[in-house]
Design goal:
The complex is a heterodimer. By secondary structure, chain A is an alpha/beta fold. Chain A has 15 helices and 12 strands. In chain A, the strands form 2 sheets. In chain A, strands 1, 5, 6, 7, 8, 9, 10, 11 and 12 form a 9-stranded mixed β-sheet that branches. A 3-stranded antiparallel β-sheet of chain A has the order 2-4-3. Chain A is globular and about 70 Å long. Among the domains of chain B are: 143 residues, no CATH class; 86 residues. In chain B, strands 1-2 form a two-stranded antiparallel sheet. In chain B, strands 3-4 form a two-stranded antiparallel ribbon. A two-stranded antiparallel ribbon of chain B has the order 5-6. In chain B, strand 5 and strand 6 form a beta hairpin. Chain B is elongated and about 90 Å long. The two termini of chain B are 22 Å apart. Classes of the chains: A alpha/beta, B mainly alpha. At the A-B interface, helix 6, strand 7, helix 8 and helix 9 of A face helix 20, helix 24, helix 26 and helix 27 of B.
Chain lengths: 475, 530
């Protein structure tokens, strides 16, 4: 495995300034190992299905434009009604929409995020994120978010393109807590692992003959070692990737046990409570992320991953969406998310890494403003969350214009860009959020971020994303 | 120096089979070894494309039907010299070509959405796979899936969409730059070619492709709505003022009979006359296509002289006969040059096997089939062809972008390595069934177990490892250290004791160690490279 900058500093004790002349930079493999993210971590959480943004970040009262009235007209009371009352929202008030002065609250189920914001001021809520010419297909819209390319298909994801630029096939910088590589992490030229459960992550063996596994490992290492040591370029690649993969299956698997024996009961129980209370898949997966971060921090052999991805399903709430009842759908989904992030964040505080961890939460679209019988259909712009020790908490972006006569023919809010900053309803392009993370968290150079997330190939400045704003201020 | 009259050595035969088919099986090697390159290649290419077309209610179903077709058809076995064996080799080559063109004219479900249109395009690729390249591109121009994928359906009279005009030149014909590094076209050429394709579309119900003359941008056309912020393209429809050796006045692609349906055919006629900046100038498209085919069938870094030789021998730059080009390529020394060498020296030129080649080739060599319907491997973890190929990075009918798949090193990553090994392990642990069922691994059907353990107690580890390598089509492709590692694995003894040992091929030993040896061969680096 390639040595990371942090490990190098630990082992050699030299100051960073002295390293430029150390000659390491002349080795192309090592040079790229000094990745920009350094010792920080990025966690990407995907809410799969299209989270209802309007019942996530809610106008809790009227101000200019009377958004609360519009909300109450679109989200009804009574059986199947989705309206969250001002009283229900009182405990999760989150701030004031800058341009309309509307008081904003989070869904009561997101009490975990409200707690983190009140206690630490480390939760950024970015309202109304979307892209031009929105698509209502889960698949298409998801693909647009994952690649950051609304207008042409492209192979690698927005994180994956960064990984491609910064890492080699000698490294494993990223892990998806999943059975497959998430498209936003899809890449070439470096390695992303998909590990749904660390304790089950293993190299495939013939389980009818387990005692023979060690013999197979020996032979595998000799086969791949010979290829790695050969003079043939392709064989070298296959050999070194194979060897580091076998090593990874061995080292990652033990991380769960290592973590279990090292972490306090309080921390362990907080995950278990979150998992038990709402069957939280997010808490289950964030615990795996915590285990991997713990592995990196404690120098586990072959473990040096800094990018994580996980997703949670169930957000496609066409019916029985519910409001704030303990057993209602959307409430449960929000408790799952908010509680899990709270548990994870406090775990990171305990580990002393909270200032080096950043979480970003997205969904492929929001939902229709006007509800149907008991749920909501597919929509356009919705909120994103960014949480972490380096985050400047608060409300960002503009609440979408949800007034009935402002909606488009489909009943969705319009994506608009405008050169006029006083325009109360200018949308936030999701690419500005990702770009802000790449620039200010991953510490890419501005020019590289601009190239990674190019503007739309059109000319209408009120409708398309032609101006990149990668300094949104939340990091 | 060899030529079409040279006899195929065993290494040559393996190279030809591995590259033009899916794996090199001993029975296939026996059919062609010691015959002349020319005779074998001529019979191999002498087929009429089949009418297979992947269909289904979802991309998943169509994908697996195509994989099944490749497995079943290319694993046909016949006695040496019979038509059945030859037919299997021919269809394997046909599918290898369809895969090449699927990558070249990359079109994918993630934008086209219609399985039906992708199936039709797949049939079109098959019909033209070794036909006339010029006719092929003309047909692709009017393929509905392509019209959708590269936005010809969004290319309108007053708002031309340049996507197809660009990729037609960049990917399908000329390439961005010629062999000397000079640009082959510029933005003006893209814009002018985009104008030719305005008005084309297809009916969403009947899927019929048609031309709307009122949506077609004609010579001198001007925007009359006064609001479109982007001025429409106007002028003479002249291209290549600065490229292709057409002179400083360029060339008009509008045929004498006027603008419309024949206009886009004529665009292709013009592009295929484009020559590069070499001295003397060479046909740009012929070099681009011949080089890419060479790279696909041989390795990434061909000598320019080799490319020019196969073009010269086939007159591909004027006749555009793909079959003739392939005939020239498959008898050329450069094609056989590295067949014998194992992938260990710096000058050995090889390629990374595509995931589909890895999957189909393994099943074909082991004479196995997948479960009917979902194309599932009945191994200990199990999975469908769609799952394995997705994890290996090659979901058919849905290449990652207009550039198709990235080849060579890009196929390799930790995750794809695990995916290949998982597939291999599922194959090796596919136990059970009757001796007739092809869904399970029957080692006795691909290895002569009686010959490998003749009861004489003589040393047999070397022979067993060699037999497995030969069965999987890679004899001689492991270096000494790797071969020794397998002998040690098989016998449990370090070298040289391993070579003096005799292993009894008891049922238990076969189930543990012979399956284990096969697993290691399927996982070995040399099996991923050919």
């Amino acid at each position: 495995m390639a040595i990371t900058r942090r490990q190098f500093l630990k082992r050699s004790g030299v100051a960073a300034g002295a390293m430029a002349s150390a000659g390491l930079f002349t080795n192309p493999l090592v040079r790229r190992a000094f990745a920009e993210i350094d010792d920080k971590y990025l966690v990407v959480i995907f809410l799969d299905g299209g989270n209802d943004g309007l019942n996530t970040v809610v106008p809790s009262g009227n101000a200019n434009y009377n958004l609360r009235d519009a909300y109450q007209a679109a989200r009804t009371l009574g059986p199947g009604g989705l309206q969250l009352s001002s009283g229900q929202l009182a405990g999760t008030s989150f701030g004031t929409d800058a341009n309309t002065a509307t008081p904003i609250a989070l869904h009561p189920g997101l009490s975990g995020l409200k707690y983190l914001q009140t206690t630490y001021n480390k939760v950024a809520v970015i309202q109304g994120c979307g892209y031009p010419d929105y698509n209502l297909s889960h698949e298409v819209s998801r693909q647009i978010w994952q690649t950051g390319y609304p207008f042409s298909p492209i192979q690698n994801g927005w994180v994956g393109r960064h990984l491609h630029d910064q890492y080699t096939l000698m490294q494993i910088p990223a892990v998806c807590v999943s059975n497959s590589i998430a498209p936003e992490f899809r890449t070439t030229g470096t390695n992303v692992l998909a590990i749904s459960r660390l304790s089950n992550f293993r190299f495939p063996y013939d389980r009818d003959h387990n005692p023979d596994n060690l013999n197979k490992d020996d032979a595998f290492n000799l086969l791949y070692g010979a290829a790695e040591g050969s003079a043939h370029a392709l064989s070298k690649v296959v050999g070194s990737v194979g060897k580091s993969t076998l090593l990874a299956t061995q080292s990652y698997r033990s991380l769960a046990g290592d973590w279990n024996s090292a972490r306090s009961d309080t921390i362990k129980n907080s995950y278990i409570d979150s998992i038990n209370d709402y069957g939280s898949g997010i808490a289950t997966r964030l615990r795996e992320v915590s285990r991997m971060i713990y592995g990196v921090e404690t120098g586990a052999t072959g473990v040096d991953c800094h990018f994580f991805q996980l997703s949670n399903g169930g957000y496609d709430t066409h019916s029985d969406q519910g409001t704030n009842g303990a057993n209602e759908q959307h409430y449960g989904l929000h408790r799952e998310l908010g509680d899990a992030i709270k548990v994870f964040y406090e775990d990171m505080i305990d580990l002393g890494t909270e200032s080096r961890v950043c979480i970003v939460v997205w969904s492929e679209f929001s939902r229709r403003i006007e509800q149907n019988d008991s749920g909501t259909d597919h929509g356009s712009q919705g909120p994103m969350f960014v949480v972490g020790g380096a985050v400047n908490g608060g409300l960002y972006g503009n609440h979408p214009d949800i007034r009935a006569n402002s909606l488009d023919d489909q009943g969705n809010t319009n994506y608009t860009q405008s050169s006029d900053p006083s325009d109360a309803f200018v949308s936030t392009d999701f690419r500005d959020v990702f770009g802000t993370i790449l620039l200010n968290w991953v510490d890419m150079d501005l020019g590289d971020v601009q190239a990674l997330l190019p503007t739309d190939p059109f000319v209408d400045p009120d409708h398309y994303w032609l101006t990149q704003n990668f300094n949104m201020g939340f990091l | 120096m060899g030529d079409k009259n040279s006899n195929l050595t065993s290494a040559d035969a393996h190279q030809l089979l591995r590259r033009t088919g899916f794996g090199a099986r001993p029975d296939q090697v026996a059919e062609i070894v010691n015959r002349t390159r020319g005779a074998v290649v001529a019979e191999l290419l002498n087929f009429k494309p089949t009418k297979f077309k992947p269909t289904g209610k979802s991309g998943y179903v169509a994908h697996n039907r195509w994989v099944k077709y490749m497995i079943v058809k290319s694993s046909k076995r016949g006695k040496a010299g019979t038509k059945k064996g030859l037919r299997g080799r021919q269809i394997a080559l046909q599918e290898k070509l369809v895969l090449f063109w699927h990558d070249h004219f990359a079109t994918g479900l993630s934008k086209v959405y219609s399985v039906k249109l992708m199936g039709r395009q797949n049939l079109l690729l098959r019909q033209h796979c070794k036909g006339n390249f010029k006719e092929f591109v003309k047909a692709i121009n009017m393929d509905a899936a392509m019209l959708e994928y590269l936005d010809t359906v969004r290319n309108h009279r007053f708002s031309p969409n340049e996507n197809y005009g660009r990729e037609l030149q960049e990917l399908f014909t000329l390439g961005v730059k010629d062999f000397l590094g000079a640009a082959n076209y510029d933005q003006e050429d893209i814009v002018q070619i985009a104008r030719a394709f305005t008005g084309w579309g297809y009916d969403y119900r009947s899927l019929k492709v048609g031309f709307d003359e009122f949506d077609h941008n004609v010579i001198g056309d001007a925007d009359d709505d006064g609001v479109n912020p982007q001025p429409p393209e106007t002028g003479d429809k002249v291209i290549y003022r600065n490229h292709g050796n057409f002179g400083s006045n360029g060339i008009s692609y509008v045929p004498v009979e006027g603008e419309g349906a024949t206009e886009i055919d004529n665009v292709i006629e013009v592009i295929l006359q484009h020559t590069d900046t070499d001295t003397p100038p060479r046909n740009t498209t012929a070099r681009h296509i011949a080089k890419k085919l060479f790279q696909y069938f041989t390795h990434t870094n061909p000598e320019t002289s080799v490319i020019d030789e196969v073009i010269g021998a086939s007159s591909f730059d004027s006749a555009w006969d793909i079959q003739a080009l392939l005939s020239a390529l498959f008898v050329h020394d450069a094609f056989y040059e590295t067949g014998e060498l194992a992938p260990f020296d710096s000058d050995t030129k090889k390629s990374v096997r595509w995931p589909i080649d890895y999957l189909v080739g393994t099943l074909a060599c082991l004479n196995m089939r997948l479960r009917t319907g979902d194309q599932y491997v009945d191994g200990q973890d199990g999975g469908t062809a769609y799952d394995y190929l997705g994890d290996m990075g090659q979901t058919l009918l849905d290449p990652p972008s207009v550039f198709g798949w990235d080849w060579e090193e890009a196929w390799i990553s930790s995750f794809s390595t695990l995916a290949r090994c998982s597939f291999a392990c599922d194959i090796v642990t596919a136990r059970g069934g009757t001796s007739k069922s092809k869904r399970y691994l029957q080692l006795g059907k691909v290895l002569d177990l009686a010959a490998l353990d003749d009861g004489s107690m003589s040393p047999n580890a070397v022979a067993i490892v060699d037999a497995v390598l030969a069965a999987m089509g890679i004899p001689g492709q492991l270096d000494t250290a790797q071969h020794k590692a397998l002998r040690t694995y098989l016998t449990g003894l370090a070298y040289p004791m391993s070579d003096a040992a005799h292993v009894n091929l008891t049922p238990d030993f076969i189930d543990e160690k012979l399956r284990g040896l096969l697993l290691l061969v399927l996982e070995s680096p040399a099996y991923h490279i050919h």
